[in-house]
Structures are given as structure tokens and as C-alpha cells.
Amino acid sequence: MEKKRVYTFGNGQAEGRADMRDLLGGKGANLAEMNLIGVPVPPGFTITTEVCNEYYEIGQERFVAILKEDVEKAIKHVETLMNSKFGDVANPLLVSVRSGARASMPGMMDTILNLGLNDEVVEGLTRKTGNARFAWDSYRRFVQMYGDVVLGLKPTSKEDIDPFEAIIEEVKHVKGVKLDNELEVADLKELVVKFKDAIKKQTGKDFPTNAYEQLWGAICAVFNSWMNERAILYRKIEGIPTEWGTAVTVQAMVFGNMGETSATGVCFSRDAATGEDLFNGEYLINAQGEDVVAGIRTPQQITKTGSQRWAALAGVSEANRASKYPSMEEALPEIYKELDTLQTKLENHYKDMQDMEFTVQEGKLWFLQTRNGKRTGAAMVKIAMDMLRQGVINEKGALLRVEPGKLEELLHPVFDKDALKKSKVLTRGLPASPGAACGQIVFFADDAAKWHDDKKKVIMVRIETSPEDLAGMHAAEGILTARGGMTSHAAVVARGIGKCCVSGAGALNIDYKNKTVEIDGIVLKEGDYISLNGTTGEVYAGKVETKAAELSGDFAELMALADKYTRLEVRTNADTPHDAEVARRFGAVGIGLCRTEHMFFDGEKIKAMREMILAQDVEGRRKALAKILPYQKADFKGIYRAMEGCPVTVRLLDPPLHEFVPHDEKGQREMAEAMGVSLQYIKKRVNALREQNPMLGHRGSRLGNTYPEITAMQTRAILEAALELKKEGVTVYPEIMVPLTGILYEFTEQEKIIRREAAKLFTETGDSIDFKVGTMIEIPRAALTADRIATSAEFFSFGTNDLTQMTFGYSRDDIASFLPIYLEKKILKVDPFQILDQKGVGKLIRMATEGGRSVRPDLKCGICGEHGGEPSSVKFCHQVGLNYVSCSPFRVPIARLAAAQAAIEEG
Ligand code: ADP
Ligand code: MG
Ligand code: MG
């Protein structure tokens, strides 16, 4: 049978279903599904995502030939259901042409509405409806969208406004009106003429009059938009493969712009910002779909509660609100009731928060889209836990519902309440996406990205955002817009990517050309600091202090639930008592990596360390090490206290020595004086330490084996600290870890020194403590000979940073020169330093774990590289049977959740 390329829907029937989103895209699959469950949807058809790939393979001409018959048949189907005819003058069928990929990519691709109009059909439509304003409003919108999307009339630079908007502004100006809906039929006719002129002048193209020609142009344009810059960027950020392709849905138009009983809107079954179980959304009377999102007119709220909340924030009195900005619940109560019933129905059907689009045509409600709504991290957690309590999903379902990486948003600092009180509120907008953000003002997306690269924190300030601004929004700490509501582009995207956003702050007067924003008489320039409170909508002058987030309520419950199902333990990488405390609060059950070198860099300690390295002989080194010992001990005690009752893995000194010595003459002179030697001598020693390739040089266990005194001193510090705390009644379980082992004997030599020093200490103090001696596995040879190393080592910790580096032979410090090209050419799918390479590095981990346990069945194995906090890598660690993962404090909750998911997914 010929491959099925087109799936129709309408009138309560559909060839597709919700679970066919890979083929029909999310939008197409859900339009089909809504038909099947009795939600009113205008009829139409979806061209599959496979056809998108075909389109790119065979080119436009052959593509049209192949699809012609199917599309014409599907149009007939729509004509029958709508009782009208595509391209007909007397009784025209108008359609929209919409994009829709598997994963939702809001606003990234193109949509065209009101297709099928021309100079004659518009007259026919006028006669048929008796509504000239509506007919011409639809026509001017069509010419505008088609001119932009298909014929390519776009702004030429970032400071320029859209050429169509420029024409509209000009016509409004001449006429002396402010809003689009104040334009009359004659003005709309003038717009159509001017639009077409502009298109012809700048692109040389005539506007097509034939309906089918328009349709094919639009279908191809939607497929083309799969490869536009912003869609490519979005896919890159979200990790969506190019091969997925987009589907195209062609659907009969329903009109929200037919007068006062017509409207269009967007709604959410729950609050996407906070997760509150509150139906909410925005609508506009006498408007078409795009108007709500684009922030052209300020939309009104759907529910009365929402409307009152909005009014309080916007400083609008109740009387004013009720008369000028009534909610849909008040203005169109019948339709509101129906909408409310259907949104509940959809949420129950999909068992998740829904983000929906609808249009009311002369009192009749139609749904145009539903999807699982994007939400903030906080909303994600609350909705999952609420739905669990409401019995919609079970515990495992709730855990699987939460995206581990998105938890990070909840851990970010919040504004300090006292600091807020002292700060000056510049203005207020809508609390579009919660959080605290503080940074320097920039006005353009590319500037945001540039400044961000220069390590500056920026707030992107815009009149409104558009899909082109995505990269800038990612780079910014927060986003502030002058226009647009809670469902505007800025708000939806910010919530999706977890950025703080205040939208629709009407008091902002933004001047892109001069890069200034004026707020009630105060003028701020690019580079000035402001702070945004995305939770309240307040905008503050300057920097406002922040503090750590509270982690209680739903978050704590979710984490407790994770622990119930998880098998992997989650430890942390912490070098200071502070980090250890933070991680403990986040639920770490031990330290998997405590790096001791950072302790040496600090203040006075560096001098003693330098003395040790620069010493002429063993004696000199011992003397210097004696000075370091008390510092190390004090550091360990602090960390142990924070980790009472838990294992703490301390890694012996790892980095190359040359990193510690002074390379400037001033520092060298200082050391010469302190040690009573000549500057000449110091210079000679520093030179001697220089290495061609320090990463593969004199570091790790090679240090401990050439300077055993260091290992002895560190052992003493680690164990003496534990013994002293034991006296205070604080128990810890030290684990001494030898770094960079490649050969069994490298390890056993170190172990001998450690055990000897421990025995000495225990005799001296007449007390003892349990401890383990193990090693990092970060050299491929160690992984290959794990069954030998485990005869001595009591635990393995996979140092996947070095292990990745050495397995691939990529220097971590130099990868930037080729990684971007490798990713682009798909030689590498991802950066292996961020996401564990399961096939190669992972194979070594699996092998080493099995090898080690073959000789020591109770060998404890963990991972302590960056990967320990990356969800897919954590899941891999679970599958391999590691005992724990260890990651930086802020990733601990992420790892805990990922570990639970791994256990659940394993079944
Ligand atoms: P996006 O993916 O950018 O949201 P959509 O395809 O959903 O694009 O369409 C953009 C807007 O046009 C939405 O508000 C949608 O509801 C509206 N729309 C699309 N098709 C129709 C239609 N057939 N009738 C009325 N409105 C439509
Ligand atoms: Mg949409
Ligand atoms: Mg290492």
C-alpha cells in the first residue's frame, strides 16, 4: 500500500490519535485526540513529519507532485464538513496552515491564518457574512502573514520594526487612532494595498491569488521553517534531533474577529508559574489567535479571580476593572462555563496540566490546541505532588513526571526580605516567571549573549520578545518586557527555561536606538543595574541582596519519595565545611570527593606549601609539612562536623606541583627571603618543575610516591581530625583515596605509607578509628587491571573527568577548539565531559566494577566526576550497579531524583 501521508480529522472522528505524536507532531496528534473525546475542533488534516524529511530529500517540485492528490482529497473532506468551498467566491472555505513537531517548540516555526482570500473572495466573504470589517481584517492579516512567512518581507536590522507594523503605525498615525481595532474598513483596504505594494517593491514577488497556489506556498514555507535559524537554535538547546521533522496541519478557520461575541484566547488548567491548581488564562474580544501572544493589545483574564489578581498588580480599581477589563467569566459567562468544563475534561484525559488555545466565533467555542504545558521548576514539583494527592497519578508517576534537571531552579537564591524592604521599587509588571534576578540592562538578544560570554550578568529589557530572542533569554538572568501578559511569548518561554520574568510593565518607555529605558521620569541606560522579582512582578533599582532558597513542603516530600524508591546513594563533592553543609541540606549522605589542594591555596597556607615544594631536601620538606598539618586538620574537622555519621572520602594531593609555586618575581623573592635561600635557587626550582604536559605529568599518586612525606602528613591530618572529633562524640568514616592510580604497585606503595602512619598515630594516641583505603579509577589502565587493583583497594571511585580525557585523548582544557565543530558535524552527539560516554568510558566503568568485584565482592564503587550530577549519567551508574554517585552540592537533589527514576524505570 502507498504510504499514508495525510491524516484527516473533524466532526468527532479522526484518523490519528494522541499517541501518534511522532508521526503527526504534538499539535496534530492532539487535534485528532480532541475530536475523538468530544472536544469541538474545526476539521482539518495533518501532513506527517515523515513527509517533512521527504520534502528535504526530494525538493519542492517533486514533493508537490507526490502530495497533490492526497491534499486535494483532504481539502474536499474539510469542504464537506464545513459546507463551503476552497477558493470559491460566493461561499469560501478559509484555512490555517500550522506547524507542529513531536516536541512542542512554541513560536519557533510559522503559521498562516485566513488562507484562501483574494480581492474577489474578500468581497464574497463580505456578502456571505454581512460583515465587511471582519472580511477585510482577515484579509489584511492574511496578506501580512503570508507576505512575511512565505514571501519573505521581514525587518532588515534588529533596530527596525516589522515592515508591516510600520505601515500599520503610519496608517493609524494619519488617522489619529491608537489601537488596531479602531481602524475602519476603508483603512483596512488601504492596508492591504500598501502591504502588497511593499511586498512587490522589496521582494519583487506578486501576491498569489489562486487558493491552491497559496496553500502550497504555505505548506512549503512551514516545512522550510523547520530549518530556520531560531528553530535550529531551539532544537540545539533542547536537544531535539533534526530528523524528527515537523508536521503540517491544515485546518478550517474559525474566526475570533467577527465582533463582540467572538474572541480568542489561551488558557492553562493550572498555574504554570506557581503550580497552583487554578484555571487561568487570557483572552481578547474580536481578535485572532496571534494577538494574545504577541502582546499587541493587553489581553483580559479568563477567570474573575485571575482578573482581580491582575488588577491588584496593575493598580486598576475594582470598578474600573469590572467595566473596562472584565474577565471572560463575567463578560461571556455561558462560554466560560463550557470552556471550564472542557479544560477539566482535557486535564483529566491527559493527566497533566494542559496549555490550550481556543477561539469563540459568534458565541460558539472551538478548541485549536492542547498540550502538556511548559512550567517552572516550582510549578512542576507542585503539580506532580498535587496530582499525587488528588489521586490522578501514583507515587512512581509523580517521580517520573518531574524533570531532574529542572529542580535546579528551585535551589537558586531568592531575594532577602530585609534587603527588599530597603530597595526602591521602580515599577511593577506581571509576575510572569518566578525567581530573583539581578543584572545589567541590555536591550538586544545578541548583546545579552555577548555580555554573558564576558561573564556579566544581564537583564534583557524589551518592549516584547519574539522567538528570535531565544538565545538572549537563555543568556540573561531575567527578562523584563513592557508589553504582553502572562501568556505572552516572553512569559511562556521564560517559564519553560526557568528564567525570572516580569512582563507587561507598562510604565517602561524603551528607546532601542539610544539604548535607554525611562520609568516614571527615571532614565536607565544599557549597563545600569536593576533587579527583578519574578514572584511579585516588582522591578527594583540597583542590586538587591539574595539568600539561599527554602527547601520544604512539596520539594521535601518529593525528595523523601525519591529516597523511598532509590537504590543509589547520593554523595557530594565538597572541599569546605560550607559546601558540605549545603549538600547535607540537599540530602547528600556523605562526601564522595574532598579535594585537598584547594585547602593549600588559601592565604597563609600557600606559603607553607611553597616552602615544602621548594625545599632542598626531605628535612626541609618535613619542616614545611609540619606547618601545614594543623591547617589541614582544622579543615577536615569542619567538614567532618558537617557530615557527622557519614562517610567522607578524602583524596590525597593531586595537581602538579608547579601550580603551587610562584611564577612572578615578587612571589619568588618573597619565598627566597622566607626560606633564607637565594632568588637564583628559587628560580631554578620553579624552572625545574615546569612540564610539557602537566595533565599527564608529575601529579596524583606520582606525587605521593616521589614525596611520601606528603602522603604521611595528609594521612595524619585526616585521621587525627577524626580521632579528635571522636572524643567529642562526633563519628565519621574517613576513606582515604589515592588519586590517579594506573598500576597496582603505585597504589600498594601509597597504601603502605598510609597504614604505617595510621598505626603510628593509633599507638601514639592509644585510640583508633575505622577507615578505608581506596583509589580513584581515572586512567584506562586502572580500569583494565581493576581485578588486580581491587586485591588491595577497598573502594573505587570513578574520576570520570580524567577518565573521559584519557579515554578519548581529548584535553579538557583544549577541547573548545574543536568541540563545536564536532558537535555540528555530529561526529560527537554531546560533549562527553558533560554527559557520560556510555559506550566507551561507560564500558570501562562497567568492566572495572565487575573486575574489582570479582576479587572483592563487597567493593564499594562510586563516581565523582562532573557526570555524577547529570541525570542520564546517573541512570547509567544505577544500571552498572555502582553504590553511589557524588556531585556538586547544587546537583544533589537532581541526582537523587534521577537515581529514583532509574530504579523505577528498571521496574
Ligand atoms: P504556534 O505553534 O505558534 O502556537 P499555531 O499553529 O498554534 O501556532 O497558531 C497560531 C495562532 O493561530 C494560535 O493562537 C491558534 O489558536 C490560531 N489558529 C490556528 N489555526 C486556527 C484556525 N483554524 N482557526 C482559528 N485560529 C487558528
Ligand atoms: Mg499554538
Ligand atoms: Mg582526576
What percent of residues are in strands? 15-25%
Mean pLDDT, nearest integer?
A: 93
Q: Which secondary-structure class do the elements indicate?
A: alpha/beta
| β-strand number | 34
Give the number of domains.
4
Bound molecules: adenosine-5'-diphosphate, magnesium ion
Please tally the helical runs, counting DSSP H or I stretches of 4 or more residues.
Answer: 38
Distance between the termini: 39 Å
Q: Considering DSSP H and I runs of 4 or more, what fraction of the residues is helical?
A: 40-55%
Going across the major beta sheet, what is the strand order?
A: 15-25-24-17-18-19-20-16
Inertia-based shape: elongated
Ranges where pLDDT stays below 50 over 5 or more residues in a row are none
At the third CATH level, what is the topology name of the largest domain? TIM Barrel
Q: Which sheet architecture does the biggest sheet show?
A: 8 strands, mixed
Backbone CA Rg: 33 Å
Q: Give the full name of the CATH homologous superfamily of the largest domain.
A: Phosphoenolpyruvate-binding domains
The CATH architecture of the largest domain would be: Alpha-Beta Barrel
